[in-house]
Design a protein that fits this description.
Helices cover 37% and strands 18% of the residues. With 282 residues, the protein is an alpha+beta fold. It has a single domain, classed as Beta-lactamase, CATH 3.40.710.10. A hairpin with a 2-residue loop joins strand 8 and strand 9.
Length: 282
Protein backbone atom coordinates (compact mmCIF):
# COMPACT_ATOMS: atom_id res chain seq x y z
CA UNK A 1 0.00 0.00 0.00
CA UNK A 2 1.25 3.51 -0.86
CA UNK A 3 1.01 6.87 0.82
CA UNK A 4 -1.66 7.79 -1.73
CA UNK A 5 -3.75 4.92 -0.40
CA UNK A 6 -3.32 6.26 3.13
CA UNK A 7 -4.90 9.49 1.89
CA UNK A 8 -7.66 7.50 0.20
CA UNK A 9 -8.40 5.72 3.48
CA UNK A 10 -8.72 9.10 5.21
CA UNK A 11 -11.03 10.49 2.53
CA UNK A 12 -13.43 7.58 2.93
CA UNK A 13 -14.67 9.32 6.09
CA UNK A 14 -15.73 12.43 4.14
CA UNK A 15 -19.42 11.53 4.34
CA UNK A 16 -19.31 11.16 8.13
CA UNK A 17 -20.37 14.04 10.41
CA UNK A 18 -16.83 14.62 11.66
CA UNK A 19 -13.46 16.07 10.71
CA UNK A 20 -10.66 13.57 10.15
CA UNK A 21 -7.25 15.17 9.78
CA UNK A 22 -4.35 12.95 8.67
CA UNK A 23 -0.64 13.54 8.01
CA UNK A 24 2.02 10.96 7.15
CA UNK A 25 5.73 11.38 6.47
CA UNK A 26 8.10 8.84 4.93
CA UNK A 27 10.91 9.74 7.33
CA UNK A 28 13.77 8.56 5.11
CA UNK A 29 12.29 9.19 1.67
CA UNK A 30 10.89 12.59 2.56
CA UNK A 31 7.54 12.12 0.83
CA UNK A 32 4.49 13.40 2.69
CA UNK A 33 0.74 13.10 2.36
CA UNK A 34 -2.03 14.94 4.12
CA UNK A 35 -5.80 15.18 4.26
CA UNK A 36 -7.08 18.30 6.04
CA UNK A 37 -3.73 18.18 7.80
CA UNK A 38 -3.49 21.97 8.21
CA UNK A 39 -6.85 22.21 10.01
CA UNK A 40 -6.36 23.49 13.58
CA UNK A 41 -8.25 21.24 15.99
CA UNK A 42 -8.26 20.35 19.68
CA UNK A 43 -5.67 17.58 20.01
CA UNK A 44 -6.05 16.71 23.70
CA UNK A 45 -3.15 14.79 25.24
CA UNK A 46 -1.35 14.14 21.94
CA UNK A 47 -0.03 17.67 22.50
CA UNK A 48 1.87 16.41 25.55
CA UNK A 49 4.55 15.36 23.03
CA UNK A 50 5.52 19.04 22.82
CA UNK A 51 5.94 19.25 26.59
CA UNK A 52 7.92 16.01 26.66
CA UNK A 53 10.09 17.29 23.83
CA UNK A 54 10.98 20.39 25.87
CA UNK A 55 11.71 18.30 28.96
CA UNK A 56 13.93 16.00 26.91
CA UNK A 57 15.75 18.97 25.40
CA UNK A 58 16.45 20.39 28.88
CA UNK A 59 17.73 17.05 30.14
CA UNK A 60 20.10 17.05 27.17
CA UNK A 61 21.40 20.57 27.82
CA UNK A 62 21.65 20.10 31.59
CA UNK A 63 18.97 22.70 32.37
CA UNK A 64 17.17 19.85 34.11
CA UNK A 65 18.51 16.71 35.71
CA UNK A 66 16.75 13.35 35.41
CA UNK A 67 16.98 12.73 39.15
CA UNK A 68 15.80 16.19 40.18
CA UNK A 69 12.92 15.89 42.66
CA UNK A 70 9.72 17.75 41.83
CA UNK A 71 7.17 18.44 44.54
CA UNK A 72 3.62 17.59 43.58
CA UNK A 73 1.49 20.53 44.64
CA UNK A 74 -2.26 20.64 45.13
CA UNK A 75 -2.53 22.87 42.07
CA UNK A 76 -0.95 20.13 39.95
CA UNK A 77 -3.48 17.46 40.82
CA UNK A 78 -6.02 16.69 38.11
CA UNK A 79 -8.49 13.92 37.45
CA UNK A 80 -8.84 11.96 34.26
CA UNK A 81 -5.98 9.81 33.08
CA UNK A 82 -3.05 8.85 35.24
CA UNK A 83 -1.95 7.29 38.49
CA UNK A 84 -0.05 10.00 40.33
CA UNK A 85 -2.95 11.62 42.16
CA UNK A 86 -3.84 8.18 43.52
CA UNK A 87 -0.36 7.50 44.88
CA UNK A 88 0.90 8.58 48.27
CA UNK A 89 4.42 9.79 47.64
CA UNK A 90 4.86 13.57 47.53
CA UNK A 91 8.02 13.90 45.41
CA UNK A 92 8.95 12.38 42.07
CA UNK A 93 11.90 12.92 39.77
CA UNK A 94 11.70 14.75 36.46
CA UNK A 95 12.23 11.46 34.65
CA UNK A 96 9.53 9.74 36.72
CA UNK A 97 7.07 12.43 35.68
CA UNK A 98 8.07 12.13 32.03
CA UNK A 99 7.56 8.36 32.04
CA UNK A 100 4.16 8.76 33.70
CA UNK A 101 3.10 11.41 31.20
CA UNK A 102 4.18 9.32 28.23
CA UNK A 103 3.04 5.89 29.43
CA UNK A 104 -0.36 6.63 30.97
CA UNK A 105 -0.87 10.28 29.97
CA UNK A 106 -0.80 11.21 33.65
CA UNK A 107 -2.48 14.60 34.02
CA UNK A 108 -0.97 15.40 37.42
CA UNK A 109 2.53 14.59 36.16
CA UNK A 110 1.83 16.71 33.09
CA UNK A 111 0.83 19.71 35.20
CA UNK A 112 3.92 19.36 37.40
CA UNK A 113 6.22 19.27 34.35
CA UNK A 114 4.38 22.16 32.75
CA UNK A 115 4.81 24.21 35.92
CA UNK A 116 8.51 23.32 35.92
CA UNK A 117 9.28 24.36 32.34
CA UNK A 118 6.49 26.85 31.56
CA UNK A 119 4.17 27.06 28.58
CA UNK A 120 6.31 29.84 27.10
CA UNK A 121 9.20 27.39 26.70
CA UNK A 122 7.02 24.91 24.83
CA UNK A 123 5.91 27.73 22.52
CA UNK A 124 9.54 28.67 21.82
CA UNK A 125 10.39 25.07 21.02
CA UNK A 126 7.41 24.81 18.68
CA UNK A 127 8.65 27.91 16.87
CA UNK A 128 12.19 26.54 16.50
CA UNK A 129 10.87 23.27 15.07
CA UNK A 130 8.52 24.97 12.63
CA UNK A 131 5.36 23.81 14.39
CA UNK A 132 3.31 26.90 13.67
CA UNK A 133 -0.03 25.74 15.06
CA UNK A 134 0.80 23.35 17.90
CA UNK A 135 0.25 25.03 21.26
CA UNK A 136 -0.48 24.25 24.90
CA UNK A 137 -2.97 26.83 26.13
CA UNK A 138 -3.38 25.87 29.76
CA UNK A 139 -2.84 23.23 32.40
CA UNK A 140 -5.04 20.15 32.52
CA UNK A 141 -8.20 20.97 34.48
CA UNK A 142 -11.10 18.92 35.80
CA UNK A 143 -13.52 21.75 34.99
CA UNK A 144 -13.12 24.50 32.38
CA UNK A 145 -14.92 27.67 33.36
CA UNK A 146 -15.45 30.81 31.29
CA UNK A 147 -12.29 32.45 32.63
CA UNK A 148 -9.84 29.83 31.27
CA UNK A 149 -9.00 28.61 27.75
CA UNK A 150 -11.74 26.31 26.42
CA UNK A 151 -9.31 23.46 25.64
CA UNK A 152 -5.95 22.25 26.91
CA UNK A 153 -4.24 22.35 23.52
CA UNK A 154 -4.77 22.77 19.80
CA UNK A 155 -2.73 21.82 16.79
CA UNK A 156 -2.71 20.28 13.35
CA UNK A 157 -1.99 16.76 12.20
CA UNK A 158 0.80 18.22 10.07
CA UNK A 159 2.58 19.75 13.07
CA UNK A 160 2.18 16.63 15.22
CA UNK A 161 3.63 14.47 12.42
CA UNK A 162 6.47 16.95 11.96
CA UNK A 163 7.34 16.78 15.65
CA UNK A 164 7.49 12.97 15.50
CA UNK A 165 9.56 13.21 12.30
CA UNK A 166 12.09 15.42 14.08
CA UNK A 167 12.35 12.84 16.86
CA UNK A 168 12.83 9.92 14.45
CA UNK A 169 15.42 11.81 12.39
CA UNK A 170 17.28 12.93 15.50
CA UNK A 171 16.78 16.62 14.72
CA UNK A 172 14.67 17.56 17.74
CA UNK A 173 17.47 19.58 19.29
CA UNK A 174 19.96 16.68 19.35
CA UNK A 175 20.05 12.95 18.60
CA UNK A 176 20.04 12.13 22.32
CA UNK A 177 17.06 14.35 23.09
CA UNK A 178 15.23 12.86 20.10
CA UNK A 179 15.97 9.29 21.14
CA UNK A 180 14.80 9.98 24.69
CA UNK A 181 11.45 11.28 23.46
CA UNK A 182 11.00 8.18 21.28
CA UNK A 183 11.78 5.90 24.21
CA UNK A 184 9.11 7.65 26.28
CA UNK A 185 6.63 7.31 23.40
CA UNK A 186 7.45 3.62 23.13
CA UNK A 187 6.19 3.18 26.71
CA UNK A 188 2.71 4.45 25.83
CA UNK A 189 0.11 1.92 26.98
CA UNK A 190 -2.75 3.16 24.77
CA UNK A 191 -2.70 1.38 21.42
CA UNK A 192 -6.46 1.61 20.95
CA UNK A 193 -6.49 4.13 18.10
CA UNK A 194 -4.12 4.05 15.09
CA UNK A 195 -2.40 0.72 15.96
CA UNK A 196 -5.58 -1.04 17.16
CA UNK A 197 -6.17 -3.16 14.03
CA UNK A 198 -2.48 -3.66 13.29
CA UNK A 199 -0.46 -6.75 14.19
CA UNK A 200 2.45 -5.53 16.31
CA UNK A 201 4.31 -6.36 19.49
CA UNK A 202 4.18 -3.37 21.80
CA UNK A 203 7.05 -4.78 23.89
CA UNK A 204 9.35 -6.24 21.23
CA UNK A 205 13.02 -5.45 21.98
CA UNK A 206 15.29 -3.55 19.65
CA UNK A 207 13.31 -0.36 19.12
CA UNK A 208 13.93 1.78 17.09
CA UNK A 209 15.64 -0.75 14.82
CA UNK A 210 13.04 -2.51 12.63
CA UNK A 211 12.10 -6.02 13.63
CA UNK A 212 12.62 -8.69 10.97
CA UNK A 213 9.28 -8.95 9.21
CA UNK A 214 7.53 -7.22 12.10
CA UNK A 215 6.22 -3.80 12.92
CA UNK A 216 7.16 -1.52 15.82
CA UNK A 217 5.09 1.39 17.09
CA UNK A 218 5.77 4.38 19.35
CA UNK A 219 2.97 6.88 19.86
CA UNK A 220 1.07 9.32 22.04
CA UNK A 221 -2.71 9.48 22.07
CA UNK A 222 -5.24 12.07 23.16
CA UNK A 223 -8.85 11.63 24.23
CA UNK A 224 -11.39 14.27 25.13
CA UNK A 225 -15.05 14.95 24.48
CA UNK A 226 -15.38 15.05 20.70
CA UNK A 227 -11.66 14.40 20.16
CA UNK A 228 -9.49 11.40 19.39
CA UNK A 229 -5.87 12.02 18.41
CA UNK A 230 -2.85 9.79 17.85
CA UNK A 231 0.66 10.80 16.77
CA UNK A 232 3.55 8.40 16.39
CA UNK A 233 5.73 6.31 14.14
CA UNK A 234 5.46 2.91 12.52
CA UNK A 235 8.80 1.21 11.93
CA UNK A 236 8.71 -1.62 9.43
CA UNK A 237 10.37 -1.84 6.04
CA UNK A 238 10.35 1.94 6.23
CA UNK A 239 9.81 4.49 8.96
CA UNK A 240 6.48 6.31 8.73
CA UNK A 241 5.67 9.19 11.08
CA UNK A 242 1.97 9.99 11.35
CA UNK A 243 -0.72 11.97 13.09
CA UNK A 244 -4.46 11.36 12.95
CA UNK A 245 -6.97 13.68 14.63
CA UNK A 246 -10.74 13.17 14.67
CA UNK A 247 -13.13 15.86 15.87
CA UNK A 248 -16.92 15.87 16.06
CA UNK A 249 -19.90 17.48 17.77
CA UNK A 250 -20.68 15.49 20.90
CA UNK A 251 -24.38 16.33 20.53
CA UNK A 252 -24.42 13.79 17.70
CA UNK A 253 -24.16 11.01 20.26
CA UNK A 254 -22.14 7.83 20.73
CA UNK A 255 -22.69 6.54 17.19
CA UNK A 256 -20.55 9.39 15.84
CA UNK A 257 -17.87 8.65 18.41
CA UNK A 258 -17.81 5.02 17.29
CA UNK A 259 -17.60 6.13 13.66
CA UNK A 260 -14.68 8.43 14.48
CA UNK A 261 -12.74 5.70 16.27
CA UNK A 262 -13.40 3.28 13.41
CA UNK A 263 -12.18 5.86 10.86
CA UNK A 264 -8.97 6.46 12.85
CA UNK A 265 -8.32 2.73 13.06
CA UNK A 266 -8.88 2.23 9.33
CA UNK A 267 -6.32 4.93 8.57
CA UNK A 268 -4.00 3.12 10.99
CA UNK A 269 -4.40 -0.08 9.02
CA UNK A 270 -3.42 1.77 5.82
CA UNK A 271 -0.45 3.43 7.52
CA UNK A 272 0.85 0.10 8.79
CA UNK A 273 0.52 -1.51 5.35
CA UNK A 274 2.46 1.41 3.89
CA UNK A 275 5.20 1.05 6.51
CA UNK A 276 5.61 -2.58 5.46
CA UNK A 277 6.03 -1.68 1.78
CA UNK A 278 9.36 -0.86 0.19
CA UNK A 279 9.71 2.74 -0.95
CA UNK A 280 10.75 1.85 -4.49
CA UNK A 281 7.25 0.52 -5.19
CA UNK A 282 5.42 3.56 -3.80
Amino acid sequence: MSLAQVAAAARRSAALPLTLSVAAVDVDGGRTVGVDDDTVLPVASASKLLLLAEVSRRLDTGELSAGQLVEIRDEDRAGGTGLLRRLGRGGWTVEDLAWLTAAVSDNTATNALLRLVGREATARLAGRLGLDHLALHDVVRDVRGPDVPPVFATGTARDLARLVTHAVRGTMGSPDASARLLSWMRANTDHGLVPALVGHDAYAPGFPEPASGGLLVANKTGTDAGVRADAGVFIGTRRLAYAVVAHWDTDLGPSTERAAVHAVREVGRALAACAHRRRARD
